[in-house]
Each structure stands twice: as C-alpha cells, then as structure tokens.
C-alpha cells in the first residue's frame, strides 16, 4: 500500500516529526491494530532514512502504541476506549491534586511565565499552529503543577503524559480553541489564588478532553 501522504517535507526536528506522524496515523486507524510496521516501507513513504523510523518506533513502544516483537518488528497495539478513560481519569484526579498543592508555592515569575504561555498559545490558535500549541500547552501544565512537593505525583503524571495526551490539540477539531478558553480561566484563578476552584477547573478540563478523544476515535472506527 502506498503511504505517500506520510512524506515529511520539513526535516527540522526530524525524529519528533516522524514520531508525531506515525502516532497520528496509528490513532487515526490508518494502521490497523495488529498490523506490522515495516521500517523500510515507512522510511521510503516518509522520504527519510531507516534510523529515525527505528528510533520513532522505540518511542511509540514506550507510549504503548506499538509492540516490538523479536523476528517480527513493530506491531500496532490497539488503543481502546478503556485505555483512554483510564489515562484521562487518573490524570484528572492526580493533576487536580498536584495543582491545588502547587499554587501556594508558585512565584511571581512562575505566574508571569504562565501568562506568557497563555499568550503564546493564543497566537498559536490564531495561526492554527498545532505543533506550537502542543509544545506550549505541555509547558503550561508542567509549570502550573511545579510547586507541588510530591515527587511521586510528578513521576506518575509524566508517565501519564507520555504518548497521545499532549497531542490531542492536533487531532481533535476545535480542541485548541476549547482548551485555550479553559487555560484563560485557569490563569485568572491562579492570579486570584483560588486553589480549590483551579483544581476543579483543571479536573474538568482533562476529563472533557478524554471524552472528546473517545468520541473522535469512535467516529473514526
């Protein structure tokens, strides 16, 4: 099967782009669960060497999207509705706690940076620049929970952030706009020091995204 639509025309940050393109193709069911991903075919389709494809498949294995099997190579792992529900529910609970505990310890510089990130995300929305929005969104979420002193909470959240959660703005129609409106509300609560309300808003923000992602995959199927 021809995969010419996968071809990459911009070689900057090559590995990240290969990972992103393959991740999106898997989540959009362009590759079916159980399908074998052949490095040579993917490299040719993308117009890259085998090395970034090989590294990308290793990264996708860490994210749970492929399984690397001896003598078979990479096999697409099914992403189920239960997987999405589990990841987003756990994130919503733990991140809400982390943010509530973090807010009293955020500095004025942290708050200024959060304001700057919200502005940069606003510009990304206007330009329809999903990659920039994704990068700034990840920075925003990490910074907003920075002040939480629970290191295990940070470790678990980083694990839950691996894979598709950061990339939903590039996959769900209207997600950047909805998320940005919620980010602005979060910023107002940070500036007012309302940790309880901030915790509730971020919990709903994550759960809403999870539900939207489940609906999106169901439509693709």
Could you describe the 3D structure shown?
This is HTH gntR-type domain-containing protein. Residues 12-79 form the HTH gntR-type domain. Keywords: DNA-binding, Transcription, Transcription regulation. GO terms for molecular function: DNA-binding transcription factor activity; sequence-specific DNA binding. InterPro entries: AsnC-type_HTH_dom, GntR_C, TF_FadR/GntR_C, Tscrpt_reg_HTH_GntR, WH-like_DNA-bd_sf, WH_DNA-bd_sf. Strand 2 and strand 3 form a beta hairpin. The relative contact order is 0.13. The model has no long low-confidence stretch (mean pLDDT 89). The longest helix has 26 residues, at 195-220. By secondary structure, the chain is mainly alpha-helical. It starts with 13 loop residues before the first helix and ends with a helix. The radius of gyration is 18 Å and the shape is elongated. It is built from nine helices and three strands, in the order αβααββαααααα. The protein has helices spanning 14-27, 39-46, 50-62, 81-102, 108-127, 130-144, 151-161, 175-192, 195-220; strands at residues 36-37, 66-69, 73-76. 67% of the residues lie in helices and 5% in strands. The protein has a three-stranded antiparallel beta sheet. It folds into two domains: 4-76, Orthogonal Bundle (Arc Repressor Mutant, subunit A), CATH 1.10.10.10; 81-220, GntR ligand-binding domain-like (Four Helix Bundle (Hemerythrin (Met), subunit A), Up-down Bundle), CATH 1.20.120.
């Amino acid at each position: 099967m021809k995969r010419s639509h996968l071809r990459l025309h911009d070689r900057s940050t090559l590995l990240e782009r290969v990972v992103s393109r393959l991740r999106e193709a898997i989540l959009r069911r362009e590759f079916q669960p159980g399908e074998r991903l052949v490095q040579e075919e993917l490299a040719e389709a993308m117009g890259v060497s085998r090395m970034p494809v090989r590294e990308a498949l290793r990264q996708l294995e860490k994210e749970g999207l492929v399984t690397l099997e001896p003598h078979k190579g990479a096999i697409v792992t099914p992403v189920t509705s239960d997987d999405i529900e589990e990841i987003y529910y756990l994130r919503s609970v733990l991140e809400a706690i982390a943010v509530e505990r973090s807010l009293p310890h955020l500095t004025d510089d942290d708050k200024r940076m959060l304001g700057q990130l919200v502005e940069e995300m606003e510009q990304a929305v206007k330009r329809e620049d999903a990659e920039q929005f994704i990068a700034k969104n990840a920075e925003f979420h990490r910074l907003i929970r920075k002040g939480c002193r629970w290191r295990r909470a940070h470790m678990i959240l980083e694990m839950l952030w691996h894979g598709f959660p950061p990339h939903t703005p590039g996959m769900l129609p209207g997600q950047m706009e909805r998320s940005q409106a919620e980010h602005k509300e979060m910023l107002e609560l940070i500036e007012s020091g309302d940790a309880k309300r901030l915790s509730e808003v971020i919990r709903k923000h994550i759960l809403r995204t999870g539900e939207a992602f489940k609906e999106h995959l169901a439509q693709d199927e």
